[in-house]
Specification:
Elements lengths: L4 E11 L3 H9 L1 H5 L9 E8 L6 E8 L4 E12 L3 E10 L2 E15 L2 E12 L8 H16 L3
Antiparallel strand pairs: 1-7, 2-3, 3-4, 4-5, 5-6, 6-7
Length: 151
């Protein structure tokens, strides 16, 4: 058994939409499906389950063109409408757990828009080396969120 590696990062983004609009992109299945996925050109969804409530779960599994399968298993622990989401998730790569993470997303009013603060604590398991790919991938998802938010 290899040692677990611990990491923490923060991503900050600003959106021109109000916190309620940004929150809806996390809180509704339709809203989240618009931006929370792999890249369309190299990833296809295999399974999705969405139950956004305290105690609810979310799963997203997809297959990359290379044949690699990734799975996101999430449980929601705290939700403040239009303000905060706290969840834990486990990532699997080809069925093998590679990380367990705790996240908070804060949606703060910023003029007419929203300042999003994503704080994540990760434990990378059994020799898996993330090398910043999680930070990069979540950043790309927030780019996609910005593109898909309605005005």
């Amino acid at each position: 058994m290899a040692e677990a590696v611990h990491d923490k990062f923060v991503i900050e983004r600003r959106f021109k939409q109000a916190p309620a609009r940004v929150f809806a992109a996390f809180a509704t299945e339709e809203g989240k499906a618009r931006w929370f996925s792999g890249p369309n050109e190299s990833w296809e969804m295999v399974d999705r389950h969405f139950d956004f409530r305290v105690g609810g779960t979310e799963h997203l599994e997809g297959r990359w063109k290379s044949g690699t399968i990734t799975r996101f298993d999430c449980s929601y622990h705290d939700i403040v409408p239009d303000g905060r989401i706290v969840y834990a998730y486990r990532m699997k790569l080809n069925g093998k757990p590679i990380s367990v993470n705790l996240c908070s997303i804060e949606l703060l009013p910023d003029g007419d828009g929203t300042r999003l603060l994503h704080t994540e604590h990760g434990i990378y398991l059994d020799g898996y080396e993330d090398n910043g790919s999680r930070f990069h991938g979540i950043g790309l998802q927030y780019d996609k969120l910005a593109e898909t938010l309605p005005d």
